[in-house]
Amino acid sequence: MNGSERKPSAWKRFIAKLNREFRWFMPGLGYKRWIVLTIIGAMLLGLGLAVIVLEYYRTTTNEFLTPILAALSLRFLDRPIRFLLFGGLGFAMILIGIWGANRAVLKPFEREGRPAWEAVQQYRRKDRGIKVVVIGGGHGLSSLLSGIKAYTHNITAIVTVSDDGGSSGELRRDMGVLPPGDIRNCLSALSNDEALLSQVFQYRFKSGAGLEGHSLGNLFITALAEITGSFEEAVAESGRVLAIYGKVLPSTLSNVQLVGDVRLQDSQEIVQVKGESKITEAGGKILRVLLEPSNAQAYPPTVAAILNADLIVVGPGSLYTSLLPNLLVSDLVDAMRSSRAEVFYVSNVATQRGETDGFNVSDHLHVLEQHVGKNLFDLVISNNNFKGELGEGVEWVRNDSTSRRHFKVYETDLVDGLYPWRHDSKKLAKAIINVFEERTGPLYG
Known about the structure:
By secondary structure, this protein is an alpha/beta fold. The protein has two domains: about 10-115, no CATH class; about 125-440, Rossmann fold, CATH 3.40.50.10680. Helices cover about 45% and strands about 10% of the residues. It is built from 18 helices and ten strands. The protein has helices spanning about 10-20, 30-60, 65-70, 80-105, 115-125, 140-150, 165-175, 180-190, 195-200, 215-230, 230-240, 275-280, 300-305, 320-325, 330-340, 360-370, 400-405, 425-440, and strands spanning about 130-135, 155-160, 245-250, 255-265, 270-275, 285-290, 310-315, 340-345, 380-385, 410. Strands 3-2-1-7-8-9-10 form a seven-stranded parallel β-sheet, sandwiched between helices. It is elongated and about 115 Å long. The model has no long low-confidence stretch (mean pLDDT about 85).
């Protein structure tokens, strides 16, 4: 066996282990303050005991105890030496005791190949992360949330409640609750245990009278809404069950319906279509969408989250049926304009059949400005990787001279390798955080 293959000596292994343990004292773990408090407490306790022992030693006449106390207090040594001996031994015992207690308590939470201090460090860093508000719906929103939670736990997802199709639409009609579908997807994306709990939450029944087509999460939220007496409380309790990072909030608690003006392809006639699911099925060009009632008030915690945010991200998501139903809620855009946060728009990677056929980035932005006004976005983030097979009738959403001339645009590879018509959650989250820190610098240590 050559020298490069020799095992490190016992001394080197001890030094390496000691170095790993001392990482508990790195900045940002919030650990040293409790060590100092423990040491001060131990010192005060020791001082109190010393006062009692000293008083007893000075006043006792017991010939048997006097020499024992003198020996235990090392009176034959100078006081500075005794201080170093007792103080050093006590300090070492405190550290060893705290270290042992930590090992015992944190052992169940250690993952293979990942020490506990590293898990604590990452958690503390994310707990102090930037306050991000994400506005949208559908798969695009849940994908972004899944990626952004790797950088911060201070996340608020604002979700549309205008869905009237599928399981959500059926529960909305039959049970009178707000549609839980998009909220369910966001809760699952923010869950601490996406591997199991979120899969159960997303499970969709394939058969069964009254159950077919419904997802377990939709039924769970609906049941909680009846138990707690409010939809917002049901969402909050669902978040606790899934141990999510952040919050999921509806844009409004009003029972809103999405209405669209659609120019039909064959006759060029403009018709008004009611219902989110029916608008894209009309088979024409969507000219405008609005909410009924038009005066639906924003959910107050949603407005508060926007006003307190460091970063607001609009998109990705279906332009007419996910993004605009949020932005058309009264007071929500006003809160965005009043907020000090950076406001980013994330353009879709590909067009959506029946909704944004033939659209490029500037077309998306033009529609948004038509509905909510200009100068809302500080930056536009779009994809520049156009490799991969898209479905029939689906095209890449590309930048053009108009978008580059009128907006600050950041272009990068955002494509999911397996599903190129979707965003890659990790690529997208990394791009958003990187460009935000380039514009503002790190807000939190």
